[in-house]
Amino acid sequence: MNTASHKTIKNILLESKEYFKIAISVDCVILGFENGELKVLLIKSDLEEFKDEWSLLGDLVRPDEDLNTASYRILKSRTGLEDVFLEQVYTFGDLNRHPAGRVITTAYYSLININDHQLKLAHNQIHWHPVNELKSMAFDHKLILDTCMKQLRERVMEHPIVFNLLPEKFSLRELQSIYEAILGIKLDRRNFRKKFFLMDWLVDVDELEEDVPHRPGKLYRFNKEKFQN
Amino acid sequence: MNTASHKTIKNILLESKEYFKIAISVDCVILGFENGELKVLLIKSDLEEFKDEWSLLGDLVRPDEDLNTASYRILKSRTGLEDVFLEQVYTFGDLNRHPAGRVITTAYYSLININDHQLKLAHNQIHWHPVNELKSMAFDHKLILDTCMKQLRERVMEHPIVFNLLPEKFSLRELQSIYEAILGIKLDRRNFRKKFFLMDWLVDVDELEEDVPHRPGKLYRFNKEKFQN
DNA sequence: CCAAAAGTGTTCAGGTTACACCCATGA
DNA sequence: TCATGGGTGTAACCTGAACACTTTTGG
After folding, report:
1. Tell me, what's the pLDDT at A221?
2. B149, containing H or E segment
3. Is B2 in CB contact (< 8 Å) with chain A?
4. pLDDT by residue (tens digit) across A108-139?
5. Could you give the CA distance from residue B212 to residue A17 in angstroms, rounded to a whole number?
6. Which CATH class is domain B22-156?
7. Strand D proximal to B123 Cβ, under 7 A
8. 3-class SS at B177?
9. Average pLDDT over every residue of B6-17
10. Backbone torsions φ then ψ of A160, nearest 5 degrees
11. CA-CA distance, A116 to A110, in Å (whole number)?
């Protein structure tokens, strides 16, 4: 016999009291591009268990902020940047992923122009670390980083997001070297140019590179008008 | 001056006490294929606020189980099925998504063969609902469903997952109609066959359909040997 | 004048699309 | 015999990959 009584909000709260023993955090894989390689913003772990290990930037989610707000908060507090590209990737919920207790974390990755961000290296233990040189990290952060990199590689093939790593104006060489760094492959210069002009993602700003020890290339900007629908 | 003292586990627990006020749940988009259309397993909401609205199958995550375990538990308790395809999609953390309080939910989607699952319709309010006929749902579940469907459409283009919706042996017509239902487009029969045989995803089991009111088609099974590396 | 990178087209191979007729079965 | 879907091949098109020489600038 089905005598299903509808639960009230109060009932739900009472019944689920036991479950409010899990903390939730967000971790940000903040990526930049410098000297031809991808770098990720890391901090020395402040846990004894992971002393001297690198950790992603993250924090517990506050009860009065949603997940995206939390990741933006972390990003802004660490880089000073607003209006940046940020995308959720995956949620990691293994039982023992955090030595302090049950902490489920949602991973985001962000692409920023490394030069917009004035890092105060002297004041903290945050630094830009080449992604490819990381062997191990605190917690399950290596897994989180790898997962974000995998998603990034998929996304850049379909969506115009790498421009977030570049200044307003950039050369085709810079653009290409970012793709090469992300995908880990060499690309053909002629095919690369052809493809981008066909896709109509670029706008010629009619300026040239300066202070380069070779023939200066033309500068372009991202054709954002094409994508703001 | 940086006098960074490493935090102990105990410190972390004490400092974060305030944060254990968020509950975490998982919601499962359980999909099946029947009569030429995709269906999702739903239940009438047991909340007053959403009386008569359809809800995904979900539950709070227990402190002693990880996220994947929680979604498998829900799937098994509702369908009786084990060893099924289940994939995490996205985590929804808006402040007011649940009227009972702060509940962050991680969405999973699952693909099952609808005939393997003996539904006890009389005993509960669970039923299979055509995905395309759903206009609104309880909570933010319509958004969750749409997000899962979007990911499903991307995944089926690259990965051999639709076989989870089919019985062991199936005809090419059944396989094609699943792709058409998921992608929402008509496909060319000749090109579809050509492509699948080229990809080597199918094994001819040397049997024919039975009880069809037309020329019976050959039956195939998924070439799982090819993918179990 | 040398080094370094910019700029520029064509060819080939492989994959995707479009398309129509005969066949086997059950009613 | 009719209705229904099964089974089959070819040509046009498009996309991606491979590939080399001349030009411009700074040193």
Report:
1. 97
2. helix B141-156
3. yes
4. 999 999 988 876 555 568 999 999 999 999 99
5. 55
6. alpha beta
7. no
8. helix
9. 50
10. -80, 75
11. 14
**Tokens standing for residue A125:** 């233990």
pLDDT at residue B70 tops 70: yes
Fold matches, A17-156 and A169-227: no
**Which one of B23, B68, B104 has the shortest CB-CB distance to A16?**
B23
A24 and B CB contact within 8 Å: yes
B123 interfacial to chain A (CB closer than 8 Å) = yes
Residue with tokens 């109509």: A200
Are the C-beta atoms of B175 and B166 separated by less than 8 Å? yes
The residue extents of the domains of chain A are 17-156, 169-227
What kind of fold does domain A17-156 have according to CATH?
A: Nucleoside Triphosphate Pyrophosphohydrolase (3.90.79)
Return positions of chain D under 7 A from a protein CB.
Answer: 3-10, 16-20, 23-27
B204-226 tens-digit pLDDT: 999 999 999 999 999 999 999 99
Question: Tokens in use for A193?
Answer: 């140019």
**pLDDT digits over A61-99, tens only?**
999 999 999 999 999 999 999 999 999 999 999 999 998
CA distances from B13 to A61, A91, A103, B220 (A): 14, 21, 11, 55
Q: Which of A6, A23, A66 sits opposite B20 (nearest CB)?
A: A23
- Nearest 5°: the CA angle A190, A193, A194 is 85
Give chain B residues 193-222 with Cβ within 7 A of strand D: 193-194, 213-218
In the chain, the amino acid numbered B19 is: Y
Quick check: B60 and A16 CB within 8 A?
Answer: yes
* B63 burial type by CB count under 10 A (0-12 exposed, 13-18 middle, 19+ buried): middle
| Cβ of residue B189 lies below 7 Å from strand D | yes
Nearest by CB: B100 against A13, A62, A63: A13
Q: What is the mean pLDDT of chain B?
A: 90
Instruction: Answer whether A125 sits within 8 Å of B51, measured CB to CB.
Output: no
| Domain spanning B169-227, CATH architecture | Orthogonal Bundle (1.10)
Distance from CA of A140 to the nearest CA of B (A): 14
